[in-house]
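Re-running the complex after MR caught last week's input typo. The corrected sequence lines follow. Everything else is unchanged.
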Amino acid sequence: MTPIDDPCEKCEEMMQPFLDGSLSPAEVAEAERHLGDCVWCARRYRFEERLRHYVRVATSEPMSADLKARLAALRTPLH
Amino acid sequence: MSESAPTTADTRRLAEEARARVRFEEEALELSDQVYRVARRFVGSREEAEDLVQQTYERAFRSWRQFTPGTNLRAWLLRILTNLNIDRGRRVQRSPQTTSLDTEAGDYFLYNKLEAQVPDENPDEERVLERLSQDSIVDALAEVPHDFRDVVVLVDIGEFSYADAAQILDIPIGTVMSRLHRGRRILKKNLADKAVA
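Corrected-run output:
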């Protein structure tokens, strides 16, 4: 048995590098071919992409106006 | 020592340096929101994050000449911030490493677990994502051990490249990739646990 003979399992392994843009063009083509045929995997890829976005938004806390003012005050006076 | 008044060349050089400094400070300040966003997830509280960012800018403005124009200023600021964070003894206070991380499940497991909790048949990914609250995401990330979390925060929240993250944390790029892989798995495991609770 080869290590990965299930195309969905192979697709699962390629998900992170696919979304990171670190696959080779041939691997991207392979993943896209499978995703075109497999709704099950395609949905999981879309979920992962949305999850990354959601994590970024959910954990982004705006800086306070007070800190912003304190940082601006660190600038070198012009004269 | 020269007795004469500064020459025109001296005056020009000083004026150029003053302009370069102003430009540097303005560019650094424009990045402060992004620097804070990363800092906030490196440490446990808003106060700590604010102190860290303020110290970062104090140090950056003092040592601005060490920055090479044309290189990544955001990464340079984050490198200072990371070093200050280590100096504060953050590594000593780290939470004990979880012995069994149980992160060997595949990358689909969070989706599979959440999907099972949605009553509809074949829910779309947005419905599945609704199982996660904003608070649960913040907590799940905070509970990822520091070494892994730092990489996840830089790459997935700060949107730094692997190479920039490697430079900021002073670790090899291969370590960035393996910690990122592990960190995302731990994050997803934490998210799965919180969605069930």
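None of the earlier attempt is carried over here. Chain A has four helices and no strands. Chain A touches chain B at residues 9, 12-13, 15-16, 22, 43-44, 46-48, 50-52, 54-56, 58-64, 67-68, 70-72, 74-76, 78 (CB under 8 Å).
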